[in-house]
Design a protein that fits this description.
This protein has 25 helices and eight strands. The protein starts with a helix and ends in a 35-residue tail after the last helix.
Length: 632
């Protein structure tokens, strides 16, 4: 092999010398590639721009896919889950320590707060290339041009909707940047959202309904526009949009995949199966990120690795203290029900659900709910798994092949990671090409009609129309088999409970609770969940100051709600390496220190409660006309 490399290098060198020896001209030195892939010859038509937007779509997929997916950070900084990796220091348990501007904010072993900042701006950058160059191309019609532009607007607004609820006031980029820039400034979040609303009205008008799966749809534009309207308090427009969307995209209420012939499955297994997300007859799915089984360029979602307990660890022992579980069965075992790996996935418990999600939201009214813990087909408990360690079989141990029993001496740290229940119908994704089943390739919902009904219910709640809110929420509940709610049942808590039941591992839970917190603060509406408590914008993140880890009720709804319902944060649960803690200012996340420190000629504000906030200046306002970085 070495000989061939050397020989080839000699030949290549000799060939390069030939033109020099036969000519006095140096023109042969000029590169003459077969083609250049540059913006000038790529962005010449709609197809070229849609290819550019594929980068935005791939960027969206990364939020949900892979080990320690960024979405987990959104969930563990909320009411539904916490970080479950208790075998080391660093993971986000003590949020007072792990969420600092100069901490590790983009690492699977810590958290992915920084991922949302940097990848959010990457998505904005990709979209801005299309927006800035939209009139450099040739189109079949004005409609085609507007469809491309609308799709780019969607991707930019999709990132800004999240950034303004994760980080508050943030830099506003509205044009392609072609050279290094060190003078960014923070812009008022409300003015950014107003601009995104304008853009999304355009997108909703022009983006077509029927597109390739994974592309931006008209319905997706409508959902995002409705979310932005809700954030701005325009509930009437959000209701108008929601009604239009669900009229065209009804819920799937009858069984519709190959699962319907399988025992111990139900409509929820159908709806969340790989087959359902690939089925073009699925009227409920409004937008997806895509990864198809055995297709080139696809990715594994690794959802079972993230969300299923670490049952294969040494924590699980038999009542007579023997190692109880193994990833692989004994070579001579023929009983497939013992294969925990194949049937449930090889979890490591990164995403540990709270008591709120496992038990509290499943009341008598949800006894028949297909999504809930009472349904033994939909949910799994550790007691459903089996002792399958081959050495147990070899020794004739009496516990081999029996259901698991929680070890009496299991530590808090071990139980956090290895002993909890989970929604099997939602988290199970077949992984046929890998020995350890972590979760394979699948499309994944970004928006569904079910969420739109819950958005409608919330809009009616803010308007005080509780009868209409109950009607909207009951469409989702009735499909699942839950008892209907009455107008008297409607509170913001009822709406958040229903979102948790329906949208686990789909919604950005922290974003949505923060959006509600902003609405309470902006409107001054009394929160019935907390006895009529009201909130204000002027102290939204608390009093501030370095090291200001305030744990006082009544400052923002986000903190009050999370502490009320997350038993880890409200009980001070302690593991081997940390105590679970959260504070008022975590309603917004820290801007990564690197982003601020390298912005030498401008000012990017830090959020109140984090070091550096004392240097903040008044955020700028997005102009209603023209652009900030492009043509004035």
């Amino acid at each position: 092999m070495k000989y061939n490399i050397v020989k080839n290098c000699v030949v290549l060198t000799s060939m390069m010398l030939v033109p020099f020896l036969n000519s006095c001209s140096e023109s042969w030195l000029d590169p003459k590639p077969l083609s250049f892939y540059t913006p000038e010859n790529s962005y010449v038509d709609a197809a070229g721009f849609y290819s550019a937007l594929t980068t935005c779509e791939r960027n969206m997929r990364h939020e949900y896919f892979g080990d320690a997916a960024p979405l987990i950070t959104e969930m563990i900084l909320s009411d539904v889950a916490v970080e479950g990796t208790t075998d080391k220091a660093g993971p986000a348990m003590n949020i007072d320590v792990s969420l600092l501007p100069d901490a590790k904010l983009n690492d699977g072993n810590y958290n992915k707060v920084g991922w949302y900042w940097y990848e959010g701006y990457k998505g904005i950058k990709y979209a801005n290339v299309v927006i800035a160059r939209i009139d450099d191309a040739t189109y079949k019609s004005e409609d085609e041009r507007n469809q491309v532009l609308g799709s780019a607007y969607f991707h930019r607004a999709y990132r800004y909707y999240k950034l303004t609820h994760q980080f508050g006031d943030v830099p506003y980029l509205d044009w392609e940047i072609n050279s290094p820039k060190y003078d960014f400034y923070s812009y008022d979040r409300w003015s950014i959202l107003e601009k995104m609303k304008e853009d999304m009205e355009f997108a909703y008008k022009w983006v077509p309904e029927k597109v390739d799966r994974g592309r931006t749809t008209k319905a997706a534009c409508g959902v995002l526009l409705a979310k932005i309207c809700m954030a701005l308090g325009d509930f009437d427009r959000a209701i108008e949009l929601g009604k239009e969307i669900v009229a065209k995209h009804p819920l799937m209420t009858a069984r519709f995949t190959a699962n319907k012939s399988k025992p111990n499955t139900n409509l929820m297994h159908d709806l969340h199966s790989v087959e359902a997300k690939m089925d073009m007859a699925n009227t409920e799915g409004l937008m997806y990120v895509v990864a198809y089984p055995e297709a080139e360029g696809s990715a594994r979602i690794e959802l079972m690795r993230n969300g299923v307990p670490y049952w294969a660890a040494g924590y699980i022992t038999t009542p007579d203290s023997k190692k109880g579980t193994a990833i692989y069965l004994a070579a001579d075992e023929t009983d497939t029900k013992l294969d925990n790996n194949v049937l449930y996935g090889r979890g490591i418990g990164r995403l540990r659900p709270t008591n709120y999600f496992q038990y509290q939201i499943w009341t008598e009214k949800e006894k028949n709910d297909l999504r809930g813990c009472y349904n033994k087909d939909s949910w799994r408990r550790m007691e459903d798994l089996y002792y399958n360690e081959p050495s147990l079989k070899k020794s004739g141990n009496e516990w081999y092949g029996k259901n698991l029993v929680k070890p009496a001496n299991m530590s808090v740290s071990d139980s956090v990671r290895a002993w909890f229940s989970w929604p099997h119908y939602k988290l199970f994704v077949p992984d046929p090409l890998n020995a350890e089943k972590k979760g394979g390739e699948t499309p994944w919902y970004i928006y569904r009609s079910a969420e739109v009904y819950l958005m409608l219910a919330e809009c009616y709640y803010w308007k005080g129309q509780t009868t209409e809110a109950a009607t909207a929420i009951n469409v989702v509940r009735t499909r699942a088999g839950a008892d209907p709610l009455t107008a008297a049942d409607i509170t913001i808590g009822a709406i958040l409970d229903e979102r948790a039941r329906e949208l686990y591992y789909e919604e950005n839970r922290h974003v949505e609770i923060t959006r509600m917190a902003y609405t309470f603060a902006k409107t001054g509406k009394a929160c019935e969940v907390f006895g009529g408590r009201t909130y204000k914008l002027d102290n939204f993140s608390g009093p501030g100051g370095t090291g200001s880890n305030v744990k006082q009720e009544g400052i923002n709804f986000y903190y009050d709600w999370v502490v009320k319902n997350n038993n880890f944060y409200n009980k001070g649960i302690v593991t081997a390496y940390a105590e679970y803690k959260i504070s008022v200012h975590h309603v917004l996340w820290p801007v990564p220190a690197n982003a601020i420190n390298t912005n030498m000629k401008g000012v990017i504000n830090q959020n109140i409660g984090y070091p550096g906030a004392e240097k903040n200046i008044t955020p700028l306002i997005v102009p209603k006309e023209g652009t900030v970085l492009g043509p004035q």
